[in-house]
Specification:
It is a single chain. Helix 3 links the parallel strand 2 and strand 3. The longest helix has 13 residues. The protein is globular, with a radius of gyration of 19 Å. The chain has a 6-stranded mixed sheet. The chain is α/β, with parallel strands linked by helices.
Length: 258
């Protein structure tokens, strides 16, 4: 699944930007290579987040604009944590970065380009199966026809593979996906019998899937990283993400505190 780029602004911001001559700054287009992390010149905060934040990320940016009155456009870049780190290494460094585990940022080639990470959220991996599936436990997976799992370099894949090894479970037919939302799509479309996703993703699917808890598995911790030279607007947004208003939105989406 390709990384999706969206721009989330509060309604008042949209009205203001539509009247301004430079309204194109927040049109949702991809930033030019190397432009991320230079928002002091573009007037846009670059916010990269793991794919499991797909639903809540726009809610966060809209709530931030409403709560603070900050009209700075925030451009959201969603994708697998490993890909977000690759983009940062290629020069497209975000101002604010949230990955789906603490291992992903270790691949940053210039870790000192970000301030020390802050543990922001936690999320539990679950086994998602179609709502009418007879599967009730992870021990039945070897009997399933097909199981979707994130690629090994992706946090959800790292967690799933570690769990399967820990439990001594060998899967039959496996399909590897770019990120957790691609896994969820395979499950909801009926293309696989089961898939390893986060509890928040299973909840986002509504009644289309049922989530089976994985015993003896610690949840993933999501770190928040802020670029060392991020503009004040990005610093304020990152601080807001650690406050009560953001915590309520994260909780409503199914995330927990680390």
């Amino acid at each position: 699944m390709k990384t999706r780029i969206i721009t989330a602004l509060a309604a008042t911001v949209l009205l203001l930007s539509g009247c301004a001559s430079g309204a194109g700054a927040g049109d949702g287009s991809s930033p030019a290579p190397g432009s991320a992390g230079t928002t002091g010149g573009t007037g846009v905060v670059q916010f990269s987040a793991a794919a499991s934040l797909t639903d809540v990320a726009p809610e966060l940016t809209a709530a931030y604009a409403k709560d603070t009155g900050d009209t700075t456009p925030i451009q959201i870049n969603l994708g697998a944590s490993s890909k977000l780190v690759q983009q940062a290494n290629a020069g497209e460094r975000p101002d604010v970065l949230i990955t789906a585990d603490t291992e992903a940022p270790k691949a940053l080639e210039q870790p000192d380009a970000f301030a020390a990470p802050v543990d922001l959220l936690s999320n539990s991996l679950v086994l998602a199966v179609p709502a009418d599936s007879p599967i009730t436990g992870v021990d039945q997976l070897p009997e399933a026809h097909a199981v979707a799992i994130c690629a090994p370099a992706v946090p959800c894949g790292r967690a799933a593979n570690g769990y399967l090894e820990q439990e001594g479970i060998t899967l039959g037919t496996v399909t590897e996906e770019d990120d957790v939302r691609a896994v969820l799509t395979k499950v909801t479309a009926g293309q696989v019998d089961a898939g390893f996703v986060y509890a928040t993703d299973a909840a986002a699917a509504g009644g289309k899937v049922k989530a089976i808890k994985l015993p003896h598995l610690a949840p993933n911790t999501y770190p928040l990283l802020v670029a060392t030279h991020a503009p004040d607007s990005a610093q304020k947004f990152a601080q807001w993400l650690q406050g009560d208003a953001a915590t309520q939105l994260f909780s409503a989406a199914g995330f927990s505190q680390p």
